Amino acid sequence: MRKLLVPREHLAGRSLWRQRAWYAPHYVANSLLEVDFTVLRERGVRCAALDVDNTLVSHGGMNMTPEVIALLRQVREKGVLERLVLATNRCRSVDQLAAHIRADAVLQHGWHRKPSRRYFDQLERAVQFPPEAIAMIGDKIWTDIYGANRAGMVTVLVRPLGGASVV
């Protein structure tokens, strides 16, 4: 997250419709490894909600790289963020991934999937932080960025692992 600030407020000031601003992330990074969690903390973020497929692991995978595991453990151990949560539309368990980085998981509940507002309300209740204290980090504009922006969260768009589409 070198210089990833593209303030959504700046875009809205250029007379874009409010709905279009929902698709604009607050920050952009080439990968999860480049996200500067201290910048997020300075903005008031206390919890990171991490998309799983193509953000933490390749699509359908269950193995994070040692660098990602080390980064996320360090973020927790140094107290940069108080909580990490895996936010996914996966139906299968992500407990193994969560255990590696000492995180919780919020899975889809029935028809409530990202980008639905109910999914993000469920995420807020699970982590017990207000939306402005949660950063959604993901690779998809439609599910991760749009949904989290509508819920009032800070958003970080990362390039998908494997070069998949960000839409």
From TrEMBL:
InterPro entries membership: HAD-like_sf, HAD-SF_hydro_IIIA, HAD_sf
Top-level taxon of the source organism: Bacteria
Annotated Gene Ontology cellular component terms: cytoplasm
GO molecular function: phosphatase activity
Gene3D superfamilies found in the cross-reference section: HAD superfamily/HAD-like
UniProt name for this protein: YqeG family HAD IIIA-type phosphatase
Organism, scientific name: Candidatus Andersenbacteria bacterium CG10_big_fil_rev_8_21_14_0_10_54_11
